Amino acid sequence: MATDVYLLRHGQTPNNITGERIYDAGLTALGRAQAQRLAQALAGAGLSLVVASPLRRSLETARPLAAAAGIRVSVWNDLVEHNRWDPYTSLPRDELGRLFPEAEIESEMPAGGWPYPGPEAAADVAARVGRLQHRIAALPEGTAVALVAHGTLNGMLLAAWLGPAPGARVSFSQDNACISHLRLEAGGLHVVRCNDTAHLAGLRDPAS
Description:
This protein is α/β, with parallel strands linked by helices. The chain has a single domain, classed as Rossmann fold (3-Layer(aba) Sandwich). The chain is 32% helix and 21% strand. The protein has a 7-stranded mixed β-sheet with strand order 5-3-2-7-1-8-9, sandwiched between helices. The longest helix has 16 residues. The protein is globular. The relative contact order is 0.23.
């Protein structure tokens, strides 16, 4: 049996509009509507695991997905966005738990939140990507998992799974609330779709 991986980028945030670097921004009204569309689009996917990075925009996007599937959100720190700028710290553990009571936070998370030194070295983010690949590969066969993360990190995961030639520079566009679906099978990988936003067709900004 295959493992179905739905690699999702979070919904729109103020950063995506203004270009500001708000390191733990939440979703805009449109971003929340996009998250609902994601949940609707994957309602028939048989998700047995929904995983999010510990950043607010990722968790807010994962919330309706997990609710629709009737499961909790698992929080993996390795899914956090590649930090190319200033150091920052995530929300403290207790506050994250208060805001997202449906989330199962990794026991390794410090009480004061995850620290993110910046800029993150290429070797460090590559190591994170490798750990994520191994963690997904270790899931039971037949698992359908949604990974709710970030544009740059998701592109790196896609490139690693597709295995470009050493030294090649490969990038994948990842729009807000897009779906990339990969099927991992013994001895191979099938890309079902990449950066799919068809489920967002006709969506208007509720704030406009």
